[in-house]
Design the sequence.
């Protein structure tokens, strides 16, 4: 089995604040989706959400600036790591991700590269 990162992206940056009830519904959807993957012993790491506020980027020469770039139209919101036989199987897992129900939501499926495999 190989490991894949499922990277959660949203176009147009962070969305407007939601009510506590809506937030609870969203969290339940995420927990159910990840729980289904874990029940099949395919969840390697439940990852983390990635914040925007207080972010920095470091460039060549040690230049530090606030980030992410304001001109970027997609923000990375977080990730999980799953185990699958193929990228297609990992993409099938991603199809149930709750971020896809939000306008502009996408899941990027990326294989993790092991030290002994540079593909």
Sequence:
């Amino acid at each position: 089995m190989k490991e894949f990162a499922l990277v959660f992206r949203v176009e147009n940056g962070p969305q407007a604040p939601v009510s506590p009830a809506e937030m609870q519904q969203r969290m339940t959807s995420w927990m159910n989706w990840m729980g289904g993957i874990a029940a099949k012993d395919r969840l390697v790491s439940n990852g983390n959400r990635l914040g925007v506020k207080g972010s920095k980027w470091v460039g060549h020469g040690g230049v530090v600036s606030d980030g992410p770039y304001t001109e970027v139209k997609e923000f990375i919101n977080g990730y999980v790591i799953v185990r699958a036989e193929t990228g297609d199987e990992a993409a099938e897992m991603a199809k149930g991700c709750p971020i896809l129900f939000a306008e502009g939501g996408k899941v990027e499926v990326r294989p993790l590269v092991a030290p002994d495999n540079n593909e």
Observations:
- Residues 2-111 form a domain with the Alpha-Beta Plaits fold (CATH 3.30.70.1060).
